[in-house]
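Chain A, query sequence.
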Amino acid sequence: MKTLSVVVPAYQAADWIERCVDSLLIGAEDMEILIVDDGSRDATGAIADLYQAAHPGIVRAIHKPNGGHGSTINVGIDEARGAYLKVVDSDDWVDQDALRALLDTLRGFAENANPVDLVVSNFVYEKVGRRHKRAVRYRNVLPQGRVIGWEQVGRFRASQYLMMHSLVYRTEVLRECGLRLPEHTFYVDNLYVYEPLQHVQSLYYLDVDLYRYFIGRPDQSVNEAVMIKRIDQQLKVNKLLVDVEVSPYDVPPALYRYLLHHLRIVCVISSTMLMRSGRDEDFARRVQMWKELRYDDPVVYRHLRRSAIVQLMTLPGRPGRTVSQAAYRSAVWALQLN
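Chain A, predicted structure.
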């Protein structure tokens, strides 16, 4: 068994996949790199085959019909031979020194009779055109250098949450929870974070800036114009998150608090994109989204609505829309996302 499986979802990634895979090649024989070619029509598949030929036993090229980002992760989970699993998108990369530190940490956990379920590390926004890169770290939330349970997890800031980029799950956690991400759907990384967390009992925070999250290409799924164009898929994921059954009586209080926090952020993003479209029909859908949540789960709705950010971003009427737009622009500037 390998210590770590790194799944690289790849679609039409010929222009940047080499940067990603090269960053993962640190000479570790106990790590495997699964390049999952999602039916690419460019040279992505051929590049994956070249890496497999050059690094046998470490790189595996997996070719499949196009099914979307979620389907590539599903295949990666099925094919992984590592005790732990991390997803690195093909246009992103990792810091090699941080990756070595991660592997050293995981080796110790993999040999333990009670291995840690989740390792959290930092990620850095590699924004095109910005010299100063914003790092997302968790020092205020997670104790460093020791295995912890949820009772030792602090409160996340309003702008701070766990992303796929910051997580390394124990592979069996992903399999035992039955995670299957929907196909032909963007923004499923929120489900990848949210669903397995209920099955995580032990955590470890490794304070290294491992993941380099590249943003700024106009065709990226997180580009605002693209998100507005694909708002139906964002709303689909939003609804799937709402439908995940979570009871405050079945999970530790800190975990329940975090799940509400994560759901709040996704709902705010959905609500904001509906507002930013400028279409009256989307503004009506925004109102309807919150009405449906209130009907489906009044308890969760009350928790979310108590948040200042939710109240600010859902002010009614055209004056409310103006205030919400200003708040959104301020947040984007403060977070250096634009």
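The chain has a mean pLDDT of 90. The radius of gyration is 20 Å.
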